[in-house]
């Protein structure tokens, strides 16, 4: 097992993040073939059931099983977070490479473009796109992916510039490696820790953006299971059945918290400057 992974698991934040993400991923996979009840199956005779057997988390206003809805909603969460992460990866690497490895006029143009794009909040971009193309999960994926890809490019670009001046990169260029070969063999592996941390944060933003946009009606359609849609449906009854609202809100909060803590733990596990603390100095006692 790689050393950084052992360090990640050894810390409380990293262990918590890995466990929560694993639980969400397993719930999403299991829901493809099995859920305790059909998530869209209404049973008016069981509406507003309290947490008990067989409805472990209770039911909603139409008798749907909340645990089944949360498991099905995990599919949407995983789909959006992974999709936004892939888009952010492609956008971030492309912009960072153009801003670090090309001619000066192109580097400066990309830097100005990144500064302009980073000024627009991700949720605002998603709402603007939704108003034109309609709300869907793909809108959330592309909006969050592009928005956070710009953030990744902004952080990764100076790291690429720094590594590009290293002796081993200059030696590789002198040996005949092209810019593309240097990028894949030397530059990207050396900026991977910074990139991975930013990617984990982008996935957290994607989860929060999907829930928020679905809550506002700009995200998942009514036929797609979503934690944000479930929260929007149940919040009207918070004064009468407050426990039912807790479950989707808790799922969103814990997942976003886990991804953010995982990003911090990854930074500490992969950055040598944070791992090597200065040892406390020992002042010898003066013997009288």
Which short descriptors sum up this protein?
288 residues, disordered C terminus, mainly alpha, 71% helix
Structure commentary:
Helix 5 (122-133) packs across helix 6 (137-164), helix 8 (179-216) runs antiparallel to helix 10 (242-270) and helix 9 (227-234) packs antiparallel against helix 10 (242-270). The protein is built from 11 helices and no strands. The protein has 288 residues and is mostly helical.
In short:
By secondary structure, the chain is mainly alpha-helical. The chain is built from eleven helices and no strands.
- What is the terminal separation in angstroms? 53 Å
Number of strands: 0
Radius of gyration: 23 Å
Fraction in helix:
over 70%
For the sheet with most strands, the description reads: none
Mean pLDDT rating: 83
Task: Work out the oligomeric state of the chains in this entry.
Answer: single chain
Detail the topology: elements first, then pairings:
Blueprint lengths: L2 H8 L1 H20 L34 H36 L2 H14 L4 H12 L3 H28 L2 H8 L4 H38 L10 H8 L7 H29 L1 H4 L13
